[in-house]
Specification:
It is found in: Bacterial flagellum basal body. One of its GO terms (cellular component) is bacterial-type flagellum basal body, distal rod, P ring. Pfam families: FlgI. Belongs to the FlgI family. The protein is of the alpha+beta class and about 375 residues long. The protein has 6 helices and 25 strands. The chain folds into 3 domains: about 130 residues, no CATH class; about 80 residues; about 140 residues, no CATH class. It has a 6-stranded antiparallel beta barrel. The longest helix has 17 residues.
Length: about 375
């Protein structure tokens, strides 16, 4: 088994050596960073959905639904004080949305509607005018419209079948912007670029590319996640023109060596920079089988004895085939090791256990993420 794994790894190494070198992929700066000030804002509101086909909230279990319905009717001039009504076609919901950067008054955004009571479905419902607030408590949009739910429910006398989530849905372009975020982008004298994946090498490359583009030292790396650009030195007519000149510049990002393992599905994802030091691996499976087979012993006929149950236990240990003591040479890439283990017929579950053990031994030089 040792020789088989060594031979396979050696063959793989030979193939890689003969293959053409792989060139790194360049990525646009706009796909690596977030521009300071160019961001969205989360919105949330509390509203009422009407027009449901008997699948709304039970008002005895959700008294807040009756309260908001009463408030809406009174604002419309309908006095329901002291009245008892128990409709089954209304549901209290949370409405969430995202105000995009530079959204202007009159623009429309998508919203998501989710039931918060015991409503069974929002299919066919209509959201009544709902104000949407931001973190500062101000109203920035108003939502209203017909809900498109992504689930379905079928109910019979003895069974119910639900597919998807009928208690949540969306309203495309269902909210209209009523207030703009007070931010004057044209007055910026400097612009900060925040890296989505902080890395000193990537930030230094972004700084170098921007300085080459403008022909002067207008960009400076502040830390692993921030690059500051002095717009007064960029020579651009406005901050917007400077962003246009920056965001499409190609940069080769530096990726951290990382291994991601999903134990539920047995999926293993790895980067090309993962390396393994010299290590020996031995793996096998043991199955312990215990089976009870009691025997009832009867007394002789016409005797005064009693029936006795005699215990009988059968045990056994089964060792399933695995890999023996396999030695992995130093400097081997993880992809080569995975390919070798696949060739030997190692299952994904056992492969994950092997990787965990190699990481615990300090031979796997990468960030190990288990999901």
């Amino acid at each position: 088994m040792i020789s088989r794994l060594r031979l396979f790894v050696a063959v793989v190494l030979g193939v890689v050596a003969l293959a053409a070198p792989v060139t790194a992929q360049n990525v646009r700066i706009k796909d690596l960073v977030e521009f300071d000030g160019v961001r969205s804002n989360d919105l949330v509101g509390y509203g009422l959905v009407v027009g449901l086909n008997g699948t709304g909230d039970g008002l005895r279990n959700a008294p807040f639904t009756e309260e908001i319905m009463t408030n809406i009717l009174e604002r419309l001039g309908v006095n329901v004080t002291g009245e008892q009504f128990r409709p089954k076609n209304v549901a209290a919901v949370f409405v969430t949305g995202r105000l995009p950067p530079f959204a202007r008054t009159g623009g429309q955004i998508d919203v998501t509607v989710s039931a918060i009571g015991d409503a069974k479905s929002l299919l066919g419902g209509t959201l009544i005018m709902t104000p949407l607030n931001a973190a500062d408590g101000q109203i920035y949009a108003v939502a209203q419209g017909t809900i498109i739910a992504g689930g379905i429910e079928a109910t019979g006398q003895a069974a119910t079948v639900i597919q998807g989530v009928p208690t949540s849905g969306v309203i495309p372009a269902g909210a209209r912007v009523e207030r703009e975020v007070e931010f004057d982008f044209t007055q910026l004298s400097s612009l900060r670029l925040a890296l989505r994946e902080p890395d000193f090498t990537t930030a230094a490359r972004i700084e170098s590319v921007i300085n080459r583009q403008f022909g002067r030292a207008s960009a400076i790396m502040l830390d692993s996640g921030t690059v500051s650009v002095d717009l007064t030195k960029s020579g651009a007519r406005s901050p917007a023109h400077a962003v246009v000149a920056i965001e499409n510049l190609p940069v080769e990002p530096e990726r951290r060596a990382r291994v991601v393992v999903d134990q539920r599905s047995g999926t293993i994802v790895m980067g090309e920079d993962v390396r393994i030091s010299r290590v020996a691996v031995s793996q096998g499976n043991l199955t312990l089988r215990i089976q009870e087979a009691p025997i009832a012993v009867q007394p002789n006929p016409f005797s005064e004895g009693e029936t006795v149950v005699v215990p009988r236990t059968e045990t056994g240990i089964i060792e399933e085939p695995g890999i023996g003591l396999a030695e992995i040479p130093g400097g081997t890439t993880l992809s080569e090791v995975i390919a070798g283990l696949n060739a030997l017929g190692v299952s994904p579950r056992d492969m994950i256990d092997i990787l965990k053990s190699i990481k615990a031994a300090g031979a796997l030089h990468a960030e190990f993420v288990v999901m």
